[in-house]
User: What shape does this take?
Amino acid sequence: MALKLRLSKKAKTVYVEHGVWFDDGTKSIHVTIPGADGAHWSYSRTGAPKRYAIYKAILQDQYR
Assistant: This one.
């Protein structure tokens, strides 16, 4: 799968499409970048509470 990305016009920023999902078994939120080998992170409520809260809000916004 090819990376889906776009470049900003002014800054040297690359925006990459990524996937986010909640794993009920581990109670963690997982983030991946499709097509990028090794691009997978997981965040738990206790291990990374700020990032967990950000992604939790995104998932809840989308009724996921």
About this structure: Residues 49-61 form the longest helix (13 residues). The chain has a mean pLDDT of 91. DSSP finds one helix and five strands in the chain. Strands lie at 5-7, 14-16, 19-23, 28-32, 40-44.
